[in-house]
Amino acid sequence: MDDVLRASGLRKSFGSLVAVDDVGLAIARGETYGLLGPNGAGKTTSISIVAGLLRPDAGEVLIGGRPMTPTATDTKAMVGLVPQELSIYPDLTARENLRFFGRLYGLTGADLTSGADRVLEVIGLTDRADERADRYSGGMKRRLNIGIGLLHEPDLLILDEPTVGVDPQSRNAILDAVEALATDGLAVLYTTHYMEEAERLCDRIGIVDKGRIVAEGTRRELVATIGEQDLVRLEVAGDVVAAATACEHLEGVGSVDAEDRTMVCLVTGAAGRLPALLAAVAGSGATVTGVEVREPDLEDVFLHLTGAALRD
Ligand SMILES: Nc1ncnc2c1ncn2[C@@H]1O[C@H](COP(=O)(O)OP(=O)(O)O)[C@@H](O)[C@H]1O
Ligand SMILES: [Mg+2]
Questions:
Q1: DSSP 74-120
Q2: Is pLDDT above 80 for 229?
Q3: Do domains 3-223 and 227-295 have the same CATH topology?
Q4: CATH architecture, domain 227-295
Q5: What pTM was computed for the model?
Q6: Does any ligand 1 atom lie closer than 6 A to the CB of residue 80?
Q7: Distance from Cα 46 to the centre of ligand 2, integer Å
Q8: Which of 92, 159, 263, 298 is deepest in the core (most CB within 10 A)?
Q9: CB of 42 shorter than 6 A to ligand 1
């Protein structure tokens, strides 16, 4: 197998807290793998182990078939890690930042110059390369942060929630850049708590909760775990709990959640069942004020698997 990354049985505890609990994943060249989960799920701890920053209590990380450890310089050279916190110098320009970090990676002379130019192009900062980083927008700083992880031409790029706190336009530029890198053959490990980003970028997604990968697959495969069911959302005026109870035992209705003025039902063949649902709500004495039918998304999968929302 030509997996760039192969990790298995990873565990890490902090005191009595199990932050990473039997995590395993594999990523091939050109593949983008997403770790999707809420704050505290164990994403950063997992990737810190993969990048060799943190020693796991158990488990193994192989990069290009060779073991990653905190002292393994050969495997570390194959990995670019972009941490969530910015690690750039504000009073240096983008080009100066790249040249500084490039020297740390052992680049010199023409390699350093061409490496910085190449990265500036990839992150779309060529035109602004000679301005101080503290003049940049939040999104530009993030792109520079990503660029530093690309200088030594890694085989695996790890990005830890790179769009948090970034405006929508910069977010798009970041996502475009990541997409282009994967197209060029890089393996990408991407953590996020944004369902939309995982859906757009990732070939495969691992849904993480409380240190465990609770489900893994393509977006389609994950959504299929809910079954061939649609989501029917009814806005209800009146007693929503009574309305939900009236719908629970209807044929084709898998589950009903009621909250505030909204009922969410998982329904097989929703279109054909709508008349019965509406009649049941009316029979309970409540009034339907709005109806939405849609396919489930990854938020729904997360809710289905964990009983909690992805975002709080
Ligand atoms: N160095 C540490 N010491 C103690 N607890 C930690 C440490 N790092 C992370 N944790 C805890 O481990 C859990 C997972 O954290 P983290 O990997 O940062 O999650 P995520 O990146 O998904 O938000 C959290 O409960 C966090 O508080
Ligand atoms: Mg994190």
A1: HHHTTEEEE-SS----TTSBHHHHHHHHHHHTT--HHHHHHHHHHHH
A2: yes
A3: no
A4: 2-Layer Sandwich (3.30)
A5: 0.87
A6: no
A7: 9
A8: 159
A9: yes
Residue 92: CA atoms inside 13 Å, Cβ hemisphere, count? 13
3-state per-residue secondary structure call for 3-42? EEEEEEEEEEEECCEEEEEEEEEEEECCCEEEEECCCCCC
Model confidence pLDDT, tens digit, residues 103-119: 998 899 999 999 999 99
Residue 293 CA, distance from chain mean position: 26
Strand order in the sheet with 3-14: 17-28, 3-14, 58-63, 66-67
Reading the block at residue 17, the tokens are 């807290």
Residue nearest to atom 1 of ligand 1 (CA): 14
Using the structure block, give the residue that is written with the tokens 């998982």: 266
Among 11, 45, 54, 194, the mutation site with the greatest number of ligand 1 atoms within 8 A of its Cβ is 45
Q: Is the CB of 35 within 6 Å of ligand 1? A: no
| Each residue's pLDDT tens digit, 159-188 | 999 999 888 888 998 999 999 998 888 999
List the structure tokens of 92.
């240096």
Token pair, residue 169, equals 């336009």
Is 43 touching ligand 1 by the criterion CB < 6 Å?
yes
The string of DSSP letters for 144-159 reads HHHHHHHTT--SEEEE
Rg over alpha carbons for the chain, rounded to the nearest Å, is 23
| Residues in CB range of 292: below 8 A, 6 or more apart | 231, 232, 233
19 lines ligand 1 (CB under 6 A): yes
Q: What are the structural domain ranges in the chain?
A: 3-223, 227-295
Alpha-carbon distances, residue 68 vs 31, 77, 159 (angstroms): 20, 10, 18
Atom 2 in ligand 1: residue holding the nearest Cα: 14
Partners of residue 269 on adjacent β-strands: none
**Ligand 1 centroid – CA 45 distance (Å):** 6
Atom of ligand 1 nearest to the CA of 38: 22
